[in-house]
Specification:
single chain; 338 residues; alpha/beta; Rossmann fold; 5-stranded parallel sheet; globular; binds (2R)-2,3-dihydroxypropanoic acid
């Protein structure tokens, strides 16, 4: 990594999407920042044109920064300072080959994403969206409370199986324990013994075995070549018919077509999805299942808090500043990690 000396003119920084005002203002103060005020997603041609000119690209999860774009980047582009935790949309290996540093924004969206995971669990188990729709779709027609109507499933006392016990998975586990769920998890390896003891968590080497035993499956692992369709048709079929699955990680970790089939056949009781395989396109069959009360769908809102997005922006700024001050950016993403 060779960062330019300090005292030079401001680096040209290209933002692909609108960011919170506070972040954009600071970026304009510190950098020669090109904003995207009307937030129109950039086309591939626009990205290529920008990458040919600027010093720093600030992409988000909606921009696919693949090897082809990176290979065509201009000589000035030295830093891709991603406004995201996940880096599956950036070819980090291709960037490294071109001498381009990649950074991300870890830690600051952990709690918000874990909150959203719990929100999905509640929404699916307690039929929150369905209940709200009764009032919204047929105003004035609610006939009142009934002992046997709109019954969901109790959260406390159930078992949750968390796939991926990194920062977000662990934050989900803490919340789940507080709500009286027994925590089970599958991870590359066991987490540190003190945290495992605190969470009273059970580690499963075998994802297959865990899936067959838990009531709620929560997907909290990153999208990598190794986790693509980790929840394959075969694995999903191991889940109990009364169990539910929630996903706030990435859509492609689940074989969505297989999940749809199992939900339709009543072999899985429900799904709560914040992410989708072909995002932003949503499979119409999923929408149908949502209308039937078998799925709750959110539009990738896991980290969508004002505080979280400002914190993410601050991280991007710190990474750019560190780089241009000649230091290793704190959130450098190393190539070849999966
Ligand atoms: C990320 O930053 O990776 C998140 O998915 C955005 O919500």
């Amino acid at each position: 990594m060779t960062a330019p000396a300090t005292g030079r003119k401001k680096p040209r920084v290209y933002l692909t999407r609108k960011l919170p005002d506070a972040v954009e203002t600071r970026m304009r103060e510190l950098f020669d920042a090109e904003l995207n005020i009307d937030d129109t997603p950039r086309t591939r041609a626009e990205l290529a044109a920008a990458m040919a000119e600027v010093d720093v690209l600030v992409p988000t999860v909606t921009d696919r920064i693949d090897a082809e774009l990176i290979e065509k980047a201009g000589p000035n582009l030295k830093l891709i300072a991603g406004f995201s935790n996940g880096t599956d949309h950036i070819d980090v290996d291709a960037a490294a080959k071109r001498g381009i540093t990649v950074t991300n924004t870890p830690n600051v969206l952990t709690e918000d994403t874990a909150d959203m995971t719990m929100a999905l669990i509640f929404a699916v188990m307690r039929r929150l969206v369905e209940g709200s729709q009764v009032l919204m779709d047929k105003p004035g027609q609610w006939e009142g409370w009934s002992p046997t109507w709109m019954l969901g499933r109790r959260i406390g006392g159930k078992r949750i199986g968390i796939i991926g016990m990194g920062r977000i998975g662990t934050a989900v586990a803490r919340r789940a324990k507080a709500f009286g769920l027994a925590v089970h998890y599958h991870n590359r390896g066991p987490i540190n013994p003190a945290t495992e003891a605190e969470l009273e968590a059970t580690h499963w080497d075998s994802l297959d075995q865990m899936l067959a035993r838990v009531d709620i499956v929560s997907v909290n692992c990153p999208s990598t070549p190794a986790t693509f369709h980790l929840l394959s048709a075969r694995r999903l079929a191991l889940m109990q018919p009364s169990s539910v699955i929630v996903n706030t990680a990435r859509g492609d970790v689940i074989d969505e077509a297989a999940l749809i089939q199992l939900l339709r056949d009543g072999k899985i009781a429900g799904a709560g999805l914040d992410v989708f395989q072909n995002e932003p396109a949503i499979n119409p069959k999923l929408l149908k299942l949502a209308k039937e009360g078998k799925a709750v769908l959110f539009p990738h809102m896991g980290s969508a808090t004002l505080e979280g997005r400002i914190d993410m922006g601050d991280k991007v700024i710190i990474n750019i500043r560190a780089y241009y001050d000649g230091h290793r950016p704190p959130n450098r993403v190393l190539p070849g990690r999966d």
